Amino acid sequence: MPEEIPESTLNTLLEEIRRLNAKVDENTRITSEIRDGFPGGDADGHRRYHEEVIEQMAEHRKLRKELITHLVKTSTWVALSGAAWTMWKALQSGLFLK
User: Fold this and answer.
1) Residues 24, 30, 31, CA angle at the centre, nearest 5°?
2) Is residue 30 predicted with pLDDT exceeding 70?
């Protein structure tokens, strides 16, 4: 026959069960509040939206970087061409020969 468990031990175990149940209830409430914080309660849709926004931002940064690179290259060629044209005209007019 099994040994009888002392009442104090049972009370301690019961108290621990109540404490754990209260913790579970609190965690359930917090989880519900978190879910309710998303539009339509759709946490996955909310995550996908942010992933899309992040992807669009990355594409925008890439486009801006490519545009700046293109402008710098074009500006450099224009400046070099202008300097070469100016030197050519100066050579034609004999400016450097005087």
Assistant:
1) 85
2) yes
Neighbours of 65 (CB within 10 A): 10
* Residue 46 burial class via C-beta count within 10 angstroms: exposed 0-12, middle 13-18, buried 19 and up: middle
d(CA 47, CA 37): 13
What is d(CA 39, CA 48) in angstroms, rounded to the nearest whole number? 12
Confidence bin at 98 (pLDDT 50/70/90): low
Cβ neighbors of 46 (< 8 A, separation 6 or more) are 38, 39
Taking residues 60-76, report their average pLDDT: 98
> Full-prediction pTM beyond 0.85?
no
